[in-house]
Amino acid sequence: MAYDPQVQALLDELIASARPSSKSLPLEQGRRSFADLFASLMATAEVAAVEDRTIPGPAGELPMRIYRPALADRLPVTVYFHGGGWVFGDIETHDGACRQLARASGTLVVSVDYRRPPESPFPAPLDDCYAATRWVYEHAAEIGADPARLAVAGDSSGGTLAAATALKARDSGTPPIAFQLLLFPATAAAFSTPSYVEFADDAFLSKDEMLWYWGRYLASPDDARHPYASPLYAESLAGLPPALIITCEYDPLRDDGEQYAARLRAAGVETCVKRYAGMVHGFMLMGRKIDAAQAAFDEAGRALREALSRP
Q1: Which CATH number applies to 5-308?
Q2: Which of 98, 151, 160, 257 has minimal CB crowding within 10 Å?
Q3: Which mean pLDDT values do the consecutive 10-residue runs of the chain (311 residues) have?
Q4: What residues contact residue 131 under an 8 Å CB cut-off, 6+ apart?
Q5: Is 156 part of the annotated catalytic residue set?
Q6: 3-state class (DSSP) for residue 17
Q7: Where along the chain do its domains lie?
């Protein structure tokens, strides 16, 4: 295994710190540990304005944070779902990522604080993500967005939610989503792909950790085959929005993203997949240590700009 030198240096630093896995800690302590780790790793960026607000959600008030790259009206808009294995992560942990994406893309970014398992397993997180996306579309004028230029995006488990939101929107007939940006997503509750086998014990994300995450996300083992939980199992991917899928060479989820890209292409969906050599799961959230994170945000920003500038 030949990690990028910056990745290897970060791994050496993490090993020296003897930081425990977040899943090994009591839930709230694990969430704090996850937040502390990414606060130390994630780069940030200045944007024109940030606004916190709540909207009506399926189970009560649903918090969101809006990032404005410019003080302008009718901006293209990206609805963003944070990663963290569904269990960890929130608006705060991904503040830097959303700032970077807003600045790189020129889109208004709406970050959604969806309900998390184990307190609220599938389909609750997806219900919140879909509801937030519908709200953004229906209230676009209220927040200075253009409803005709709407994208969904997410990293890791948030990428799963973005893909599932695009599926649910297609099946429901609304809202019309113009683009999906999937950053190293999990696309199926299956653990036998070549990348899962090769990187089962990867220090940044292991197969054991993914089994733990999926075990908390799914309310029932039967949900593993539901296409809104595992988008790769959807009967058809035809009619979905164009996609950019970013994967990492040393990531058990690499093949999840690349298999999903292959199925999208086979269904006639315009899809670009970019594998970052030497990189590990979540590298885009480690911009203070890994230079390639900025290059990936720049690529994601260009893809959003191009997709959402189309008539």
Answers
A1: 3.40.50.1820
A2: 98
A3: 92 87 91 95 97 97 97 96 98 98 98 98 98 98 97 98 98 98 98 97 95 97 97 98 98 98 98 98 97 98 93 53
A4: 55, 56, 57, 58, 62
A5: yes
A6: helix
A7: 5-308
